[in-house]
Design goal:
9 helices
């Protein structure tokens, strides 16, 4: 919900900036140098308006990223609580079923329960540490290898899609577009059910724009609008398409 509100605010900001008229000045009359000076002032005002719009858009996108990160943190914390609860129920069931042979109990619970829990705690702790580097410590450069290492260590993790998206976004913000493109493609192609797939396609379109591939950008924006027609990503893709 918070993401939707913030994205809506982004679109309203863009719409306001685009709709804002250039300064109205009388161009006709006066000498050629006067008319040229007026035109230059109008152009300068327009360029400043576009710069301010882009700056606001970048700021809002950064805030969306942080909100998504907070949402992810809450999600995996809830999942962790549920998993611990399930493990507790299993331990209780084991105790009940093996009540007649208590001497065997320590070895049994150690072999069947402890290892999976330790592995899971290591996975979630690693992911949380990487996310905290972004949201809490603002150590963006350190977060890049942290997410990269997490992906290598836990390729089948339920957080793998999000980790790849975080990595791609950090690389995009740093300006290493080819590396960011590779990471976004992983999300799009390997995680078709991920909630980050639509956003990743939009970002691939934005990368294509920055690399002067207008046709590729248009194809990607149209892909988002076709596959996710009612999403915030589709609305952003439509806005980007209109600006080409």
């Amino acid at each position: 919900m918070r993401n939707t509100v913030l994205v809506t605010a982004m679109l309203m900001t863009i719409g306001t900036a685009v709709a804002a008229p250039a300064p109205v000045q009388e161009i006709a009359g006066g000498s050629n140098s006067d008319r040229i000076a007026r035109l230059e002032r109008i152009l300068q005002a327009k360029q400043q308006s576009e710069f301010d719009m882009q700056r606001r858009l970048d700021q809002l996108q950064s805030e969306v990223l942080e909100l998504r990160g907070l949402s992810e943190q809450q999600q995996y914390q809830i999942e962790q609580m549920l998993q611990r609860q399930r493990q507790l129920f299993e331990d209780i069931a084991n105790l009940s079923s093996q009540g007649a042979t208590p001497a065997v109990l320590p070895a049994s619970t150690g072999n069947t329960a402890t290892s999976p829990v330790t592995s899971t705690l290591g996975e979630t702790a690693s992911y949380e540490a990487a996310v905290n580097l972004v949201l809490k410590e603002r150590k963006y450069e350190e977060a890049i290898p942290a997410f990269s290492n997490f992906i290598k260590q836990y390729p089948q993790s339920s957080y793998a899609a999000n980790a790849n998206y975080w990595l791609a976004q950090l690389l995009y913000n740093r300006g290493t577009l080819d590396e960011a493109k590779t990471a976004f493609i992983v999300v799009v192609e390997q995680y078709p059910d991920s909630s980050k797939r639509a956003d990743s396609i939009v970002k691939l379109g934005m990368i294509a724009e920055k690399q002067n591939d207008q046709a590729g950008a248009k194809a990607l924006y149209n892909k988002v609008m076709k596959e996710y027609p009612d999403s915030a990503s589709a609305r952003l893709a439509k806005q980007q398409l209109a600006s080409l």
